[in-house]
Write a structure and sequence with these properties.
The protein has 9 helices and 6 strands; from the N terminus they run αααβααβααβαββαβ. The protein has a single domain, classed as 3-Layer(aba) Sandwich (Rossmann fold). It starts with 14 loop residues before the first helix and ends in a 6-residue tail after the last strand. About 35% of the residues lie in helices and about 15% in strands. The N terminus is likely disordered. With about 270 residues, the protein is an alpha/beta fold. The strands form 2 sheets. A 4-stranded parallel β-sheet has the order 1-6-5-2. It has a two-stranded antiparallel sheet with strand order 3-4.
C-alpha cells in the first residue's frame, strides 16, 4: 500500500501560504540585510539572532553587563574585590537615609556603557535605547526581589525634551515594561521646573537642584503600590532619592530603582 503524504498548499492566498510567506520573506531579508548591533553597528550573526530578541551583539551584551557583576544590594555601587557580598548595604550608603529599598544597574558608567548612555540621549539613539531597555528588562526579570505593580521613569522637563527631540526615559520605560510584563505609567510623574544638569554639579548642589522638582500627577492612586523607578544613570542617587520620597509620601509601599549605568564619581 502506498502512503501519500499531504503536501503543503502553496497556492497564492491559501491559509498555509499566508502564514508561511512572511516568515520566508523575513528570513530572506535577514540574510540579505542582516540586522546590526544597536551599539557597535556590527552585523549580528545568525546564531546570535536565534538566541536573543535583543538587537545587541553578544560581545556588547557581555561588555555592558560584566562591569557590575558584584554590587551593593542597596545602592548598586560596585563592591571592592575581596569584600563579601552577603551584606544588604555598603560602606558608602550605610547610615545614609536612602528612600528606595534597592537599586539595580546593568553596568558601571565608563567605557562602552558611557558610550551607550551618551548615544541614548541623542535623537538618533532611539533604537539603542530600545535595545538597552530590553537588556535591562531581561536582567531585571532574573534579579527583581518583588514584582512591581507600577513602573515609572524619571520625568524630563518639557523644554529639555523639545531641545533634544527625544524622550529617552520614556522609551526606556516602555521597553523595560514590555520585557518584564508590567504596566508602565509614563505620565504618573511630572517635572515641575527646569533643573540644571546633575552631571555638572557637586554632590551637595545636586540635592538642592532636585529638591521639590518632581510631583505625582493628579488622578493616580498609588496607595500600597510597589514602584520601580527607571533612569539612564545614577551617581549620587539624589534624583532617585527625591522621587522615592515623593512616591512614598503619596502612598507607595516601596520603591526600587533600576538604571542602565551606575556612576561612581561621587558617593552614593
Amino acid at each position: 500500500m502506498t502512503i501519500h503524504q499531504r503536501q503543503p498548499d502553496l497556492r497564492l492566498g491559501s491559509p498555509s501560504t499566508s502564514l508561511m510567506l512572511p516568515r520566508v520573506w523575513g528570513r530572506a531579508a535577514d540574510l540579505l540585510f542582516p540586522p546590526t548591533c544597536a551599539l557597535c553597528a556590527i552585523p549580528i550573526q545568525l546564531e546570535e539572532r536565534r538566541n536573543s530578541r535583543i538587537y545587541l551583539c553578544n560581545r556588547c551584551v557581555s561588555d555592558v553587563t560584566s562591569s557590575n557583576s558584584r554590587a551593593c544590594k542597596r545602592c548598586a555601587r560596585p563592591l571592592p574585590k575581596g569584600l563579601g557580598d552577603d551584606s544588604d548595604d555598603c560602606a558608602v550608603c550605610r547610615g545614609k537615609r536612602v528612600r528606595f529599598v534597592r537599586a539595580y544597574a546593568l553596568g558601571v558608567y565608563g567605557g562602552i556603557v558611557r558610550d551607550a548612555v551618551l548615544q541614548m540621549k541623542q535623537a538618533s539613539g532611539e533604537s539603542l535605547t530600545l535595545a538597552m531597555g530590553q537588556l535591562l528588562g531581561e536582567d531585571l526579570s532574573r534579579r527583581l526581589v518583588d514584582v512591581p505593580s507600577h513602573i515609572v521613569s524619571v520625568p524630563t522637563h518639557w523644554t529639555r525634551r523639545i531641545r533634544r527631540n527625544v524622550n529617552c526615559p520614556e522609551i526606556l520605560l516602555e521597553s523595560v515594561a514590555k520585557r518584564i510584563g508590567v504596566r508602565s505609567y509614563p505620565k504618573l510623574l511630572r517635572c515641575r521646573r527646569k533643573t540644571s544638569k546633575q552631571g555638572t554639579l557637586l554632590p551637595h548642589e545636586r540635592l538642592a537642584n532636585v529638591r521639590g522638582a518632581y510631583r505625582v500627577s493628579a488622578g493616580y492612586a498609588i496607595n500600597g503600590a510597589k514602584m520601580l523607578l527607571l533612569d539612564d544613570v545614577m551617581t549620587t542617587g539624589a534624583t532617585a532619592n527625591e522621587i522615592a520620597k515623593i512616591l512614598r509620601r503619596a502612598g507607595a509601599a516601596s520603591v526600587e530603582v533600576a538604571v542602565v549605568a551606575r556612576g561612581i564619581g561621587f558617593g552614593s
